[in-house]
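$ ./design --mode recover --in tokens.txt
reading tokens...
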């Protein structure tokens, strides 16, 4: 028994070192911009760069829009499939898994062929249209995670009973959806939202090919032209991802302790 416990701790230590040691090396290198001393000069340089603020703000805005529109798409779909159309559930699950199978570069080239300036719907012919196309692209990438998170949260509640109780009180479908269903699956929505945030902040292919000022292409640009700032940006990106993971864990605990709302 003791040998198994020691072996388990050794395996955990090896696995942790696989992730922690490269990150510590990246952090240490990002602090060596000033010759002969550790400093935060690389981080000051990054935060002082106006392009960093513009691209970071743009990606945060796109993440917010992606989360809102993705939520408005996924929650009603998952609710309707669970309540009225359980026979199409395998088809919906297959569709939501396609972004994991189809490479992002294939998806964005398809969008460019369908929505270029000479097509019936020329979204790439204007800045706002290209921004909308990028947002829909992010929605496509985040669809598997958002749908799984919402569907898992919806399994934990009795959708049919909540719907019948609301209907018996005279509630209409918008009221049922936004006042009964949404509050009970909010933990799943938030879990999907944090994953979506991490995806949008680090995505490169779609933003680069659509020529939008997003954070992912900025990371690549800095990495190709500077030495210490890329390491600082990598640490910042890791911090954003870990913050999202921590918030997911917090929301999951809240979901387990919170009672269903009728």
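writing sequence...
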């Amino acid at each position: 028994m003791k040998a198994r416990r020691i072996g388990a701790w050794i395996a955990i230590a090896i696995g942790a070192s696989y992730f922690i040691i490269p990150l510590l090396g990246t952090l240490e290198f990002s602090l060596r911009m000033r010759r002969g001393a550790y400093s935060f000069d690389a981080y000051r340089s990054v935060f002082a760069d106006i392009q960093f603020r513009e691209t970071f703000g743009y990606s945060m805005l796109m993440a917010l829009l992606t989360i809102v529109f993705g939520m408005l798409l996924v929650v009603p779909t998952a609710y309707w499939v669970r309540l009225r159309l359980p026979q199409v559930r395998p088809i919906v699950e297959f569709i939501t898994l396609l972004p994991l199978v189809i490479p992002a570069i294939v998806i964005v080239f398809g969008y460019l062929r369908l929505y270029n300036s000479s097509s019936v719907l020329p979204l790439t012919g204007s800045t706002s249209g290209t921004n909308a196309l990028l947002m829909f692209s992010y929605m496509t990438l985040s669809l598997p995670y958002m749908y799984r998170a919402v569907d898992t949260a919806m399994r934990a509640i009795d959708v049919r009973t909540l719907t019948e109780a609301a209907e018996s009180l005279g509630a209409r479908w918008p009221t049922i959806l936004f006042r009964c269903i949404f509050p009970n699956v909010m933990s799943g929505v938030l879990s999907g939202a944090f994953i979506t945030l991490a995806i949008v902040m680090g995505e490169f292919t779609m933003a680069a090919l659509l020529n939008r000022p997003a954070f992912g292409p900025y990371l690549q640009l800095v990495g190709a032209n500077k030495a210490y700032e890329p390491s600082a940006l990598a640490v910042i990106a890791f911090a954003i991802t870990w913050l999202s993971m921590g918030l997911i864990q917090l929301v999951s605990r809240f979901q387990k302790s919170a009672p269903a709302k009728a």
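exit 0
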